[in-house]
Amino acid sequence: MELLLKQNVEHLGRTGDVVKVKSGYARNFLLPRGMAVMVTKANVAEIEKARAQALAEEQARVQSLKDLATKLAEASVTIEGRANAEGHLFGSVAAAQIAAALREKGFAIQDKQVRLEQPIKEIGKFDVVLHLHASVEATVKVWVVQQKPA
Hints:
By secondary structure, the chain is an alpha+beta fold. The protein has 3 helices and 9 strands.
């Protein structure tokens, strides 16, 4: 059975794709949930219109993320941690701490957007990559400094 997808369906296709599926999958899953419709000229025209609108929204979102990436490239955050005399931290600085420090500075960054190969375990300056979108990444400077004694 051929159907026109109204939204992205994982492992099947994207909005506007014409896909061939088994009739049971179509009747019991895709059609009742409104994920797909029968292939007609009216439905194709409607989906193309929705696809164009979604594409325009996505482009606007990517542009705003590129603007955010430019601002992030100029920003830096400082994280304090206890360390020994050689500069090795007793703990480590993880993605969650970096994201929290960026949120305090007014950037809407989630923990999962911070890309660390491994936690930071020593004092110093580090360039950390932030994955904002599939096509947008930013680099922010993270300073890890010795915590002042209380």
